[in-house]
Amino acid sequence: MKKTAKVMFIACVLVMIYATVAVAAVPSDSVIIGNKAFAIAYLTDPTHASEIQEALDNADPGSIWYSIDGITTGWTGIFTGSLATASEIAAFPEIQYRDAQGSLATYAAGNGDVIPGGGDVAFEVVDIY
């Protein structure tokens, strides 16, 4: 019995070490404003001020969150300074996210995965002749 328990323990440890978890969520170094999210670099670019203002005008004050590497350990309420609870994160709406370059991606509700085709679609014309 002891030998079986040791083998089970070692197997569990190996699984935890080598297992990978694929999690896609709104990236850190971002601010969520209602159902919009922006990378900090995009947010602080003055050429996007009207878009940011529109998001702020349409957002409930309780729906503004930020997550910044090295400063926060998760989504933090901008007015409360408190970390979001699991139930608050689960209540996040579907979010349209703009990265630093302005590309759009859409994340499923609850800070979920990227929705395929939920962002900008770019086409490039290529001359093959």
TrEMBL record:
Domain of life: Bacteria
Keywords: Signal
Signal peptide start-end: 1-24
Name assigned to this protein: Inhibitor I9 domain-containing protein
Source organism of this protein record: Syntrophomonas wolfei subsp. wolfei (strain DSM 2245B / Goettingen)
